[in-house]
Design brief:
Length: about 475
């Protein structure tokens, strides 16, 4: 259970929150546990086994590299883009790891990092088991973790690790759409103000605002990097980055008075921003999970589109206020899915990634555009309603096809959802809570082939060479 809406936005590197960020956190937690228990110095070898979806798509999602980084004591926010590959190269060459950043121990990548593709651990498809041994082969420690989506990790007993304030933190109170809307109604305030009250109670106004603006700045930086990075994405699919050329064309059209606008500029800007982020994500660049890495382009795209193309701010303060409001409302909606359904494509398919990001962005946009609480709830509901059933079938286990374009679709859909809600009075037939429950049930009914296993759908329509 997240204690804060900020837990929905983790700064890290691509390409996946469940398969890169989560395993890195789990591995780091295991290594620091060795240190705490005093077992670190006696450890001569560590071993990690990956199960289920992590085993099936872990290579394409850089799970192996992330595990090495985590065991080495590195955390995602500090790791530089491109560093994961360097950590792996060093471990392969030396057959060693600097465990928890302090103690050298043996590590044979091929023998000690095992992809157990035919096996599952009981609680979730994204299971990991870590073991540490002394030089006599005696087992010093063993832990199970599950990466349950959006970078969230629980241990073998279901206890969360690495959430704000730790497992004993105050419980975030608004766990359903109804709770959120009725609490705001009773107080006569907006959803955004309700969330702000909770967050500032956790860490004070100044720090809360600073953290929200930092998240927004990293999102914006990611868009800018993606708009200017040319070339092909790694992984062997031969996908060419398209954001830079698209961006150049949009700039030319916008600045040339002789060119008649074609009428689809809003969609084009939303698309280019979303694609820029997801190309950066696929290239292991600096990304904010929002709420996952695979769906990381939607919220930054809609936020930037709102700030630069829709709003007119009288002051920088007003701009900062809307930025913070957008992220807080988006996070509050994301928590409803985390609690009522799942953010894990391995559990519910792409509904839990692109669907949730679309819903979050739609509600957030409706809020900053002045929507009532009912309209915000309606926008979030529409954002998910038209993503129900969305499968996860990434080609080659890479977060590229269909993921990159899917973010562009999600961003456009989010704006449409917000606009539809703002044209209505907020009264609607399907509630946000109903659509969240439907999303969960649809995920339960979905074949495992479409839950981030690359065993069905587009993933088997194209053969990808092993890289
Ligand atoms: S298809 Fe969707 S859920 Fe699956 S990896 Fe791509 S973005 Fe994530």
């Amino acid at each position: 259970m997240p204690g804060s809406v900020l837990d929905l936005f983790s700064i890290g590197v691509g390409p996946s929150s469940s398969h890169t960020l989560g395993p890195m956190r789990a591995a780091r937690h295991f290594a620091s546990g060795l240190e705490t228990s005093g077992a670190l110095r006696g450890c001569s070898r560590v071993c990690c086994m990956l199960y289920g979806s992590l085993a099936l798509t872990g290579r394409g999602h850089c799970t192996d590299k992330a595990i090495l980084a985590g065991l080495s004591g590195r955390c995602a926010e500090e790791i530089a883009p491109g560093e994961l590959a360097a950590i792996e190269a060093e471990a392969r060459a030396s057959q060693e790891l600097l465990l928890a950043g302090e103690h050298r121990c043996g590590f044979d990548m091929d023998a000690d990092l095992q992809f157990r593709t035919g096996e599952l651990l009981p609680a979730h498809s994204n299971g990991m088991r870590f073991q540490a041994f002394d030089d006599g082969g005696r087992n010093l420690a063993e832990s199970i973790y599950y990466s349950v989506g959006g970078g969230f990790v629980v241990d073998g007993d279901g206890r969360p690790i690495d959430v704000e304030g730790g497992a004993g933190a105050a419980q975030y109170p608004y766990l359903s759409g109804e709770m959120l809307v009725s609490a705001a109604r009773e107080r006569g305030i907006r959803i955004a103000d309700l969330v702000w009250e909770w967050e500032r109670g956790l860490r004070g106004e100044e720090e809360t605002m600073a953290r929200l603006l930092r998240i927004a700045a990293v999102m914006d930086g990611c868009i800018d990097s993606g708009l200017h990075a040319e070339g092909h994405l790694p992984g062997g699919l031969g996908v060419r980055r398209r954001a830079p050329a698209m961006y150049q064309r949009l700039i030319e059209v916008a600045s040339d008075p002789n060119v008649e606008p074609a009428g689809g500029e809003a969609m084009d800007w939303l698309s280019v921003y979303a694609i820029a982020v997801n190309e950066e994500n696929a290239a292991m660049g600096r990304v904010v999970s929002a709420p996952t890495n695979g769906a990381a382009g939607i919220i930054p795209s809609v936020l930037r589109y709102y700030l630069r193309h829709m709003a007119n701010f009288a002051s920088d303060e007003a701009r900062k206020r809307d930025t913070a409001e957008f992220l807080m409302v988006a996070g509050a909606i994301g928590i409803l899915y985390k609690v009522g359904a799942s953010l894990s494509a391995a559990e519910v398919g792409c509904q839990g990634e692109v669907g949730v990001a679309c819903s979050m962005a739609a509600g957030a946009l409706a809020s900053v555009m002045g929507g009532t609480n009912a309209q915000v709830e309606n926008a979030a509901e529409i954002g998910m309603e038209h993503n129900l059933g969305l499968t996860c079938d990434p080609i080659g286990g890479l977060v590229q096809i269909p993921c990159i374009e899917r973010n562009s679709m999600g961003a456009v859909k989010a704006v449409n959802a917000a606009r539809l809600a703002l044209y209505s009075d907020g009264i609607h037939v399907v509630s946000l809570d109903s659509v969240i429950a439907t999303m969960r049930r649809t995920g339960e009914d979905m074949s495992r082939r479409y839950k981030e296993t690359s065993l069905g759908g587009l993933a088997v329509a194209v053969t990808v060479p092993e890289c």
